[in-house]
Amino acid sequence: MTKFNCFLENAEMLNDKFNIVPLLYGSLGLEVLTNTSLNVDDIDILIPQVFVTGDKWKEFKSFLESHGYTLIDEHEHTFCKDDVDYSYASIDGLKEFADIDVCDIEIRNISGTKFMLLSLAQYLKVYQKSSLDGYRMNVKEKQDNQKIEFIKKKLYSVIKLKVTELSMLTTLFNYKDVNEMITENTRDIENGVIDIFALFDGKKIIGEVRAKYVSDDERFAEKGKRAYLYAFRIHENYQGKGLGSYLLENVLTMLKENGYSEFTVGVEDDNARARYMYEKNGFKEPIARIKESYQGDSYEYDLLLRR
């Protein structure tokens, strides 16, 4: 019997005896959601708190034991049956922990057995929050980070924009002259001077970064060797989720596959968030102080190099 079938058997009992619609949590839930084998060790289930730490815990415990489940860790509310571990926790704290409302979680029905399953976006919230927990940082940080990257790959895609798609960029930046932006970037893309890489949530563009391959100033870019990354933006509704680093890492991988080994970025003095992200991703060598203007706005920044 697969672990998911074991869960369904358990969920059917909870439906019938306690009118509980359990949430299939943890790696098994993610495995079921994505139809991807994740080498699940145990089954994590969230149920109302009253059955875990409240008045109905003893009744819940006795019921499971009468059906062949053995309590092996009362602190973790973990039972074992047929060499499969079932760990129960409260669903009531999910809102406070990961800002997920129970009423927003999908309820599935398989042959009359009801259970809840998080969406990919909800799973991302859970694992990003879990990765900040002291215990998990020491014990399961690598596993959590792997799952976060796995979920991001399922949720978000990085695509090189075509010139016919340039108007989409107006949702990320308020251009004073949209036609000028489209004309300039169309010319540069068609001449092989730049590429624009966009981050998508489904069909919605939520971020961009541009790679410049040719420059009069070789501190910025040198064809086939050094690429200058600029116009780095993540939509305000998606900031704080690690998506800037995700986009950057994907673009760097694509560029390295095309032979580029050096990369530059510009970062302004007052953009601490961007500077931190760039430095975390290897842009630590300042090589120039640059002054520029675009569509009437002047600005100054440091040019950082990653070799």
Write up what this structure looks like.
There is one protein chain. The chain has 307 residues and is of the alpha+beta class. It folds into two domains: 3-120, Beta Polymerase, domain 2; 161-306, Gcn5-related N-acetyltransferase (GNAT) (Aminopeptidase), CATH 3.40.630. Helices cover 36% and strands 29% of the residues. The chain contains ten helices and 14 strands. The protein has helices spanning 3-18, 26-34, 57-66, 94-98, 120-130, 134-139, 141-155, 178-190, 243-257, 272-280; strands spanning 23-25, 43-47, 70-73, 78-81, 84-90, 106-110, 113-117, 156-160, 194-201, 204-212, 226-234, 262-267, 285-294, 297-306. A seven-stranded mixed sheet has the order 3-4-5-2-1-7-6. A hairpin with a 2-residue loop joins strand 13 (285-294) and strand 14 (297-306). Helix 5 runs antiparallel to helix 7 (141-155). The protein is elongated. The relative contact order is 0.08.
Order of helices and strands: HEHEHEEEHEEHHHEHEEEHEHEE
- Record the strand order, biggest sheet: 3-4-5-2-1-7-6
The strand count comes to 14
| CATH-derived topology of the largest domain | Aminopeptidase
Q: What number of structural domains do the residues give?
A: 2
Overall pLDDT confidence: 94
Name the shape in a single word.
Answer: elongated
User: Which range best describes the helical content: under 10%, 10-25%, 25-40%, 40-55%, 55-70% or over 70%?
Assistant: 25-40%
Low-pLDDT runs of 5+ residues are none
Distance between the termini: 51 Å
Q: Going by CATH, what is the homologous superfamily of the largest domain?
A: Gcn5-related N-acetyltransferase (GNAT)
SS strand fraction: 25-35%
Q: Radius of gyration, rounded?
A: 25 Å
Identify the CATH architecture of the largest domain: 3-Layer(aba) Sandwich
Characterize the largest beta sheet: strand count, sense, and whether it forms a barrel: 7 strands, mixed
Secondary-structure-derived class: alpha+beta
CATH class bucket of the largest domain: Alpha Beta
Q: How many H/I helices?
A: 10
